[in-house]
Amino acid sequence: MKPVADTTRDETPPAWKQQEGLGRGNLLEQVLSGENIAKAWKRVKANKGSAGVDGLSIEQTFDYLKDHWPKIRSEIRSGTYRPQAVRRVEISKPTGGKRILGIPTVVDRLIQQALLQVLQPLIDPTFSEFSYGFRPGRSAHDAVRKAHQYLQEGYQIVVDIDLEKFFDTINHDILMDRLAKRIADKAILRLIRRYLQAGVMINGVVTQHSEGANQGGPLSPLLANVLLDEVDKELERRGHKFSRYGDDCNIYVRSQKAGERVLRSLRKLYTKLHLRVNETKTKVGTVFGRKFLGYCFRRWKGNTVKIAVAPKALATFKQRIRLITRRVGGRSMNQVAEELRQYLPGWKAYFSLAQTPSTFRDLDSWIRRRLRAIQLKHWRRGPTMYHGLRRLGATHELAALATGIGNRWWHCSRTGVQMVLTVKYFDSIGIPKLT
Fold first, then answer.
1. What Rg value do the Cα atoms of the chain yield, rounded?
2. Which DSSP state fits 221?
3. Is 196 a residue whose pLDDT tops 80?
């Protein structure tokens, strides 16, 4: 089936608008309402993403649903709908290793998104106020700010919990029990369990699992929060200071002894949920030198604590910039500028909490030196480099000096060339700044 190129057509197939039997008190009917499905489709389309095991793209699925949505909706209502297996995808982590994602079909992403839109407003208000991941109106910045507040108050020993293969080890029975305590619609619960049991396709073979929730579906983050909220509530009951984003949870105490005591109790809480603490990565100790969501914390004058970019995040950033600004491959400066425009603003926005402006100034300076080296290599030696520098206002002596150095582009980028290939010059070709 070929995708249709016409993007001006009606975004809501007529079949979605049929709402026979709609009852607003019935959660399943709220999920299947034409308005909710249309809203879910817009979200799925905006998120883009690749095809699932059926091979249908978003455009192809749109055409498929025109004819098949009434049948799918009927099967969901009758309880006979069976989600398709997810497609296994391995994503390289910046720090090494692989993250395993399960990509549902576009149809199943649509249904999961429709479920999420109805369930999240009901369930989210019941979660702990110290949980920040995958929740409306909350972000990683909020989690880091809360951690920073604890440190300023003197809670500078952290219990840094790492759960071993969290999404892969979620126990279906325990999760469904906790979910049933929040929603009573058995049809919804049955559908969610079937998504948990859909299986994974690897090399054309579907493997069934009795545990795990596939990362990659819209519903998985909400289900993870349902399970982990039990630990949150116990931490709250005991009066602990903590901040959680997804399965990344830090508890802040005043002493090493208190931290060890908290860790022992946490092991019991997680064991009750059939979750395993990664003993290699889980630590109790001073917060300084540990990272949290890409950030770290530094002592400053007096008792002040400042937020900074973690060294590992800086290393990952530099690795990416080196790749973008490599001096091989024959790319133009405009192509390099376009890649930087795609990457730098997002990185800058995420790390905007950092209270270390010198870090960003140094990175800006380093990036522009790499860009000068690229420009010099593009000009290469001889008349082209000489005239290129002269056109930008270089003196005869400076242009001649740079031309005579040879192919040492990195070295040459600091021999006065920065007075010609200035920040203003790079601004003119659209290079973003971090400062």
1. 27
2. H
3. yes
